[in-house]
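Sugar ABC transporter permease: structure, please.
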Amino acid sequence: MRHGRYPFIVGFLAAPITLYVVFVIAPYAQAFYISMTAWRGFAPPRWIGFDNFRKLIDDDAFWKAVSHHGIMLVTLPLVTIAIALFFAFLLNVAGGARGGTMQGVWGSKFYRVVFFFPQLLALPIIAVLFQTVYRPNSSGLINGVLMKLGFDPVGFLIKPNLALWSIIAVLVWQSVGFYLVLFSAGMASIPKDIYEAAEIDGAGRVTLFFRVTLPLLWDTIQVAWVYLGIAAFDAFAVVDVLSVDQGGPDGSTTVLAEEIYRNFKFSQLGYASALGVALFFLTLTFAALTLRVTRREAIEY
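Here you go.
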């Protein structure tokens, strides 16, 4: 029986492994090779070794994009997780024990649908919608209200010191619904007896959140932080649609994916691939460090 098991396993895995190698590993390997060449897409690529990476180190646009990713890596996960945790707690636990089980606040089922709605829209569509929200005149949703109240319009996307934060706000708005559902699923898996015992001991809502919910959801939060960090490295769609001149004004919203696109557009395929390789290793390093730093002992319950 054991003798015939291994051919079966190999045969079962052969097709998916082949597909993974062809459609995932091979493109990565090709990108690594192209990053070592000077290639404009027409003549055969010319091998130049690490010249593209030396150029990358001296490229101000690259470091400006990396600095923007650094801001997003802190603010996007932190704000999104904080908001999603708060609302998930309200919708699942904050209503207290009713009928022998922990309940959310009144209308929680309706609120779940409302919060999840942005997930039904593609990011480019959300970016187009927020073009109207951020429009710097009376036709803009926010500025129209501000001008009626007697305030001057705010240039959300045209002021260099405000544009990146406006884009981060869009990413947070789009992301909260998904992580609310994720955290709600995590809270549903926590035995209700733990909450009931804590309430009997006199724990209030704040104590329940910080002493019970947060520690037991730590693994889910860790995964959410990694996913949101990857999303921070992959903000191309929103930046490309919302920003002035694709990464402006004055490069104040540019990200690595935008720089990759710009170099591909001008047929600098070797340098664009070098940027892609840099983005790959930055994302991989972030994920590994996050999993290492946030690692805790598993809590049994």
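Notes: The two ends are 38 Å apart (CA to CA).
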